[in-house]
Amino acid sequence: MSIFVDENTKVLVQGLTGGQGRFHGLRNRAYGTKIVAGVTPGKGGQNVEGIPIFDTVAEAVAATGANASFVSVPPKGAAAAILEAAEAGVPFIVCITEGIPAHDEARTYNILVNRHPGTRLLGPNCPGIISPGKCNIGITAGEIALPGGPVGIVSRSGTLTYQALYELKQLGVGVTTCVGIGGDPVPGTNFVDCLAAFQEDRDTKAISMFGEIGGSEEERAAEFIAKEVTKPVVAYIAGVTAPAGKKMGHAGAIISGSKGTAQAKMEALSDAGVHVVNNPTEAGEKMAEIVAGL
Amino acid sequence: MDLFEYQGKQYFARFGIPVSAGGVADTVDEAVVQADAAGYPVVVKAQVQVGGRGKAGGIKLANDADEVRLHAGNILGMDIRGHVVRRLWIEHASDISREYYASFTLDRAAKKYLAMVSAKGGVEIEAVAEEDPTAIARLHIDPSVGFSEADARTLVNEAGLDEEARSGAVQVLQDLYRCYVEGDADLVEVNPLILTPDGRVHALDAKVTLDDNASFRHPEWDGFRDIDELDERERLAKSKGLQYVGLDGYVGIIANGAGLAMSTCDVVNQVGGSPANFLDIGGGANAEVMANALEVINSDSNVRAIFINIFGGITRGEEVANGIATALQRVSIGSPMVIRLDGTNAEEGRAILKTVESDRVISSPTMLAAARKAVELAGTGSGSSGAKGAAK
User: Tell me, what's the ipTM?
Assistant: First the structure.
């Protein structure tokens, strides 16, 4: 089992004819993901290494039965691409685009909530989702993940997601699904969404959570874990040494006044019974220990 | 991008928000010219991006040219909490009946915009929120719906603004919302928003943070770019397009990805060292980017060792290794460096690194081991405070 995607997920790629879209779309296909279509306005009828290109998402869905979209479109057009996929009825949209204006992102999020409640957006500005051995949508290098479970991973940062997968693989621990929710201020999918899905997923026995400074999503996750999650959770929060008032690379990674510090998040998680660790290596080791005791 | 007050007021004026007549001055003589033009009395205001200007003596009232000379001379060059004043804003002094507060920003938890209005302006809004939270009227706005005149009226009534200020404030709030959304700001804040004795509502200060991601649709922002506020290392990094934040330690950090870069700083700290900076070379960084990053780190005289931590995803190991080799040829790197390379094409990268390895260029297999080695190479000399990374 896995969350949000599985071996039957059929993926269309918005922007498959672009440099990034082509590279990652083809890499996802090589991993075994069912990449069934590409969408680029004006290029309908062409193909990318055998993958048919359509002018619109609606046409691609009608022709291929795609039920997920991988949006690899530059910031100017990304919000419109997400909405096009939602309007065509695609239930799961992964957007890796970094640098979408904050107002476009907030508007898009609320339009999805109001008009397309059945659509889940992952990202933007995220590495994507991988259910090892089944489906990989996004930019994660598939070979760093060990299939089979029993661990579910959710992370805000791309490279830390890779680090998390890699540490577990070194220790021989498999992963059911690894979700990168992204480092932007208004992510479509948040920690709580993923924690809830992992709690439901019967093959996921333990959850690893990688957060960072900024916002209050980790604190909300802590509240949710205390109330709803019975599976063991290991958490790591990056940015203990980050100064206040400076954006640490991600638009969302900023300490405002005394809000959003790593210390506050670690305390909230610890109070919720989470195993809070100090670095990605410890996160892997702690999780291996938990898995060994299951 | 944070705007200075004078830039914020210029931005407000584009959206029809009333601000005082005034001008900028970089010298005492210019200050007098601007004051003469604005009409006495005037207020001489230090232009720095830090709170507490008034308390520090950076805002002064002047009744004539001699007083402008005196205050401008004192304020220019003044150090306000680490920010040196290089520019003044001179404006006509307003008569003030009442001081209010108004702002729009994003409430990340609610995923909606948040408008805040208070009849208690002129003081830190955080203090008001703590002492008398009911004094702030709040309204969440659905970005897909927008902010109506009725919304503005509700806010103004709830905040209890004086009767004679209400229609003016409703107009200012609507214009401020347009400035926030159409102007692509992350934050617009007016504190104080004043009521004058003749019944006008007017922005006496302006705090605006623009969303850098939206700069592609705002060519007019180029005029706002002023990197004087950055420290020298940040300026060099910015000119090379790198995500860099200066810290006050002595281990230079280069990593790919914001999360990994933050984590690398943390790990250096945990093993007893102190990071000199946060530097994210981003996804897909090539040899040129790595060489630039090393040059920036090399320009920091506090750096005693360098830790390069790369986990390849989009970024490819051989590109990173080539960048390190290129940089070693291009500049003389002053500090020993430890490199940890994993992920996409790490094997190829490590093979390239083998050709440049020495007792000053060392590869290490894991993040923790590499951090320990870098801290060891940095040594404990030079009396560093080992501070926890306050920004410069």
Answer: 0.91
